[in-house]
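Researcher: For the record, we're logging two predictions in this thread. I'll number them. Prediction 1 follows.
Model: Prediction 1, sequence and structure:
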Amino acid sequence: MNWVKKGVIFRPQGNRDWMVSHAAVPFADGLGNSTFRVYFSGRDRFNRSQTGFLEIDLKEPARVLRLHPDPILPLGELGTFDESGAMLSWIVNQGEEKYFYYIGWNLGVTVPFRNAIGLAISRDGGMTVQKYSQGPILDRSIQDPFFLGSACVMKDGENWRMWYLSAMGWKKKSGKLRHEYLIKYAHSRDGILWERPGIVCLDFQSEEEYAISRPCVLKDGGEYKMWYSYRGKSYRIGYAESPDGLVWRRKDEEVGIDVSETGWDSEMIEYPFVFDCQGQRYMLYNGNDYGRTGIGLAIWAPQT
């Protein structure tokens, strides 16, 4: 692979209460032709994440056509699983509805936070959403005892498939708590009730690694391809392939994108979202500081 970077397409200006900083975990939803709605998570002055969107045309991606003034996926009520953050992770079209899978945040006491996966549903093409329930559809369990999040969901024939972040625990490193998490698999008949067989799809490749997140899976013919973030000293984007979506082979050396020498994505790159439009493959991703420096765009160019 060879990804050609096109630079930053959006950077928060600090002029919205819900988006004082960050534009993290981008997701592009097609509106027709080359126009896309890009959902992302901004942070307020209390460091709480909420989901909003902007619209762009891939023919001129750095020009924002529209920036919605308010978040469409707000914080939950006091005491609920998403009272400290509601970050969109994935969207699936289901008839005339759109299923919004999102990461809900709670602050912790003995540990900094815990996450779970929530569902919201849009019946107007993604302009507004209603939360399916006050509680999460996937939370801590026997299979996932610490926390979970960053879901990628695919309707594959009659089945629904999910690749999601699952935490293995917390460890003290240099006097600070550090989470460890990797990618697991779940399946469903309706996209709401999920079975978790405990299958680990992506595991660490070295002792330095401790986090793998934000899986993005595409099915090319009979082969599954996944892009994701993995972290040792700092985040990088990785790539893996699978014949069945269950057993994966990491091929990070073939991902074709890395940090830049200078600038907004010179320290880390993470949270990739890969999508196709009019025969061309694109990637949205974040750079330094987990989305504080904005959203970037790259275009796939086959090597010759």
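Researcher: Logged. Prediction 2.
Model: Prediction 2, sequence and structure:
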Amino acid sequence: MFHPLSVFVGLRYVRARTHKFFVSFITWTSLIGVCLGVAALIIILSVMNGMERDLRSKLLALTAHARVVSTNLPPNATQSLDWTKAAQVVRGVEGVKGAAPYAELQALAVHQPEMMPVILRGIDPDVESQVTDLSKTITQGKLTNLTPGSNRAILGVIVAERLGVTIGDRVTLLIPTMSADGTPIPKLRELTVAGMFEVGLQEHDATTIMAHINDVRSFGTSAPGAQGLRVSLYDALTVPEVSPRIRASLPKSFEVIDWTQDHANYFRAIRIEKTMMAVLLMFVVAVAAFNIIAMLVMVVTDKRTDIAILRTQGISQRRVMGVFLTQGLFIGWFGVALGVLLGVVAAQNISQIIVFFENLFNTHLLDPSVYYDTTFPSEVHASNVLRISLAALFLTGLATVYPAIRASRTSPADALRYD
């Protein structure tokens, strides 16, 4: 026998076979409940982490990590010159990978009989690779097809599909502009389809048309924020630290807007979903913790005679508490350990597991005809696993306190008299 005595007796109770089937059943139910609750939390949060990562990469495929805009610069040529100087300054800021000018307009794309609202974005193909991966997303045509004065455009695949156009077709753009006295003056421009791109996100594929920046500027870009710089960083997650440095390097007329502001609603929604899923799934662990309480209370009732004998041999109340704390903690924490192991392994192989069950039941969890993206990406974060483990350990540990206190208060005389 090893010491301390309370740990020895508690582990002995865990190993001992019992004739109380219901107590044994509740014990296994509690352990499995804790295991499944912890595993489910790790798997769900890992999948949501993976979806957040994929969403971020798709959003940033055509969106810069930060934008520099201004509403106080002179128009047209002078404005272009100012943006060129600003780009040189921004490229010298620590943490900045590249900077490229852009021009952007709201327009209505028309190809009879279809029409749809789009964003016409002017880019400089020579420096576009510094800020986005546009060239990697092009499925038809080439980025070099966009040359000054050519009036050529590269369309998102969904835009092209809805308008019913292919390479070589012409698309008419209706561009709203304002005269000097504030009167709306629509402009009509024709662009030739020179290619198509696909990012895998409707925000880009279903709304964006790319053209050379000089062509877009010639259409008119007087609206606030219609021109500016798109900035790429070496690490997109460092934008909160780099943005203030960019802002400090430029005159006060410039403003810096980073991707966390442009897409704040997306990531706020994901954080809320992750929090709610964590709270709901933690209830599974809480239910298992209640089962531990019920199991230990029944064990205390069943072991009243053993407790009385231990007390008559001089065992203190604190050691009696230790016996049942040991038993409860072993069951709960063993369940947590199994849950962490199962959750991490399943989260790292979730794609293969999903494919297996889809083939087994001949179905799709995400119907391709309904969902744009049917994959299940996963990214296990050690911090998530640690927080889940600590929360589960706390709940299961808390569940052992009441039964242990009840066992320590058992009267030896009453237990021996009635048992």
